[in-house]
Specification:
The protein is mainly alpha-helical. Helix content is about 55%, strand content about 0%. The chain is built from six helices and no strands. α1 packs antiparallel against α5. About 5% of the residues have low confidence.
Length: about 200
């Protein structure tokens, strides 16, 4: 097969050359075969992002209860014990109520007896309230080792209500002032980041 005279400018000239494929690594990136992972441009692939565990908790949470959380637990026990003491004091006062009213000459006067009965009802109310606070404090105290973030939130709420109890008990041998001071510390310690990390730690 002839392609004409090579010296003839009007001839067919040289046979057409096949286009050569560009060398890999230059120009546009090469097509990735199906099923193969995408290739970068000579840079190493980024490391995989570490996924959180459990309910969005990252590893590295404290394995042991922090000291500030332990202090909050101990103070919570002190508040519960103080409420137990208050309940005992109200119980003693309630047991001696009728005798005290009789010695005061209240018996026989209907109006005075009505006021005395009202005061007795108030004592019964505070007795029940102090008993409930003592039981709640004990329940929270026992949940510090294995409880979740709800225990921390309940401790803050418990400390807030305990301040109110302390205000009513200021006149009772100074117990109210102790309750107020310790309740404020429980709120502060429970709100600390170390306590939050402890109660939000992953559980397997």
């Amino acid at each position: 097969m002839s392609f004409g005279d090579p010296n003839n400018p009007y001839g067919h000239g040289q046979p057409p050359q096949q286009p050569q494929a560009p060398a890999p690594g230059y120009g546009y990136p090469q097509q990735t075969p199906p099923g193969a992972p995408p290739q970068g441009y000579g840079y190493p692939a980024a490391p995989p992002v570490q996924q959180p565990y459990g309910d969005g908790y990252l590893p590295g949470a404290p394995a042991q209860m922090p000291g500030i959380t332990r202090a909050s637990q101990i103070m919570l026990g002190v508040i519960a014990l103080a409420h137990a003491v208050i309940a005992v004091l109200y119980g003693v006062a309630l047991g001696q109520w009728d005798e005290t009213m009789a010695e005061a000459g209240v018996t026989g006067d209907s109006e005075a007896e009505a006021i005395a009965d009202l005061g007795k009802g108030v004592v019964v109310f505070f007795l029940g309230l102090a008993t409930v606070f003592a039981i709640l404090g004990l329940a929270l105290l026992l949940q510090y080792a294995k409880g979740g973030n709800g225990v921390r939130v309940c401790s803050i709420v418990y400390g807030s209500f305990a301040i109110v109890t302390g205000i009513f008990m200021i006149a009772a041998y100074g117990i109210g002032l102790i309750i107020i001071a310790i309740s404020i510390l429980v709120i502060v310690f429970s709100a600390k980041r170390a306590s939050a990390e402890w109660f939000r730690r992953p559980r397997y």
